[in-house]
Amino acid sequence: MSSGKFTTPAKNARGLGSAKSGTEHYIRQRVSAIALIFLVPWFMFSIINAMGAGMDDAQAWAGQPLNAILLILTAGAAIFHMRLGMQVVIEDYIEKTGTRSALLILNSFACIALFVTVALSVLKLWIGAGA
Amino acid sequence: MVQLTLPKGSAPKKGKTWPKPQGATNLRQFKIYRYSPDEGGNPRWDTYWVDMDRAGTMILDVLLYIKNNVDPTLAFRRSCREGVCGSCAMNIDGQNTIACTKGFDELPGGVITIAPLPSQPVVKDLIPDLTNFYAQHAYVQPFLKTVTPEPEKEWKQSEEDREELNGLYECILCASCTTSCPSYWWNGDKYLGPAALLQAYRWLIDSRDEATGERLDDLEDPFKLYRCHTIMNCAQVCPKGLNPAKAIAKIKHMMVERVS
To answer: How does this protein lie in the membrane (chain A) (predicted)?
Structure first.
């Protein structure tokens, strides 16, 4: 901790001071978790019901507005929740500031790209179904 | 900093096996972590045989038996020998606790390992350097802070408000909880740890304290407070039976209450 420098313990403990943030992150993670409590069982139930169905069935199913909306909401809540969770994991385990920042940015990009891809795919099925 | 293996020079090697006490019939084997900065080299695991008929009932008794009868160079902290001072906190058979209140009857059979509290620099043998731990305790300013001029006689507190402090004020700062926390292992330079946060909460809910907002300001930080991931090791090891994880959850609750 001292690493050869003449810093006092109090200076080390205070560090850069309190960031006065973190509560928003905490609330978002919990609220998205609450949403997932409802969305994930619906999603699992739908997937199990669709076992063995083909592309046409999928298109017909996702063509119904309620299913399309819930699909996008599920993907949104899950990916948002995942982004927050991955952020914590990166902060926990990566100490080097440069690597950490790069991974945090990559995490955001990957999650946004994933969500856009899922959302457009659902929209394609929905619009393709003639909605 | 995440370190899944010990740095070079810190990995304990096989050490000395000390002679068995003569004429003893009830022997038990102890593996104890030894490190002396004066001698240099890696730490080592020394093996001791203890005559359990003469060693008392607690792990601290075993350490005193070894120091008095086998190896006077074994270094460890101890003072009150009754769970009040917190000096003899160490890792006993894989779990942080205080040696003076840990009886051998609570431990499983076989060899018992004794090591210093994990993740902290070792001064010698079973003595960790808790400088950062104490500095973090000081950071939460564990004393009454007020803006109202001090009353002539005393700050009054109702019995109900005093009861709120039960389960918090009993902390003896032994550091068992903080050094058992993986989040603290990885980010102990920034995360305040369960002991400091338990104390922070003790002052946050003190009915006489007027600095609640400032205290919350000082804690609201992704690392200082929110590195707690409710792993619960703290509550599991606390030799006083306290629950720092619950106190931290309540601080988080106060943070939410403040913005909503």
So the answer is: Multi-pass membrane protein
Name every chain B residue with its beta carbon within 8 A of the beta carbon of A88.
229
Q: Which of B54, B2, B6, B57 is nearest to B33 (CA)?
A: B6
Three-class SS state of B142: coil
Q: What is the pLDDT of residue B1?
A: 67
Low-confidence ranges of chain B (pLDDT < 50): none
pLDDT digits (tens, 9 = 90+) for B142-196: 999 999 999 999 999 999 999 999 999 999 999 999 999 999 999 999 999 999 9
- Cβ contact, residue pair A18, B217, below 8 Å: yes
Q: Any idea where the domains of chain A sit in the sequence?
A: 21-128
CA distance, residue B57 to nearest chain A CA (Å): 37
In A, which residues are within 8 Å of B134 by CB distance?
A: 9
Which class is domain B13-128? Answer: alpha beta
pLDDT in tens, A75-101: 999 999 999 999 999 999 998 999 999
Domain boundaries, chain B: 13-128, 131-259
Architecture of domain B131-259: Orthogonal Bundle (1.10)
Contacts of B226 in chain A (CB under 8 A): 22, 25-26
> Taking a C-beta distance cutoff of 8 angstroms, is the pair B178, B218 a contact?
no
Alpha-carbon gap, residue B35 to B74, rounded angstroms: 9
**What is the complex's ipTM, to 2 decimals?**
0.89
Chain A residues contacting B via beta carbons under 8 Å: 1, 8-10, 12-15, 18-27, 88, 91-95
| CA-based radius of gyration for chain A | 21
Q: Which CATH class is domain A21-128?
A: mainly alpha
Instruction: Read off the pLDDT of residues A35-87 as tens digits, 9 standing for 90 and up.
Output: 999 999 999 999 998 888 888 888 889 889 999 999 999 999 999 999 999 99
Q: What is the side-by-side strand order in the sheet with B95-98?
A: B13-17, B44-51, B27-34, B112-115, B89-92, B95-98
